[in-house]
Amino acid sequence: MNKKNVAVFVSGSGTNLQSIIDANIESANIAVVLSNKPEAYALERALNHAIPVEVVDHKEYESREAFEAELIERLKNYNIDLIVLAGFMRILTSYFVNNYKHRIINLHPALLPSFPGMHSAKQAIDYGVKFTGVTIHFVDDGVDTGPIIIQSVVPVDDEDTEETLLNKIHAEEHRIFPEAVRLFCEDRLSINGRCVSIK
Ligand code: GAR
Question: How far does the centroid of ligand 1 lie from the alpha carbon of residue 1, in Å?
């Protein structure tokens, strides 16, 4: 099988990157891990597995477009088929997204379209929902609005704090995110408008 070249974008600890590495997806080659934060622990995880890393610190760029132009430039070296946003905390504009149309997937810690944006677990607790979860979706030029690939439900218990709820959410993320990467890399996802079907 021809492996797909995958770029994983990170900003933080990288537990989801680790879950993709540990899944040993036969159809995926993690070609590069790119961070907008030089101090992100995810970079260390990549280096521990001899995966090339790139750092593009957004603070060094005057505009989102200049930052994204540099991302595109860096990726040119890796012949990338898929970009995986694994806790990448920058919003990407349509300029970047259209360069990789239908080839960027994102992980979101809620059942979209509920609780987009930041602090989704806290939003879920504050709202009083009984269930929240995890969404893996294609990225379009909105915020957390693209076609949904997989979702998983997490119950919210009365005694949950943001921290305990996030722990449950992370466990589900680590289970379903590598699965979504595998489905993409095996060419098993097709997009029809807002709907994604799995072959
Ligand atoms: C994950 O929980 C992911 O859902 C969230 O960042 C965390 C990264 O954790 N992403 C977002 O909130 C995107 N809006 P990690 O660095 O340990 O993988």
Answer: 30
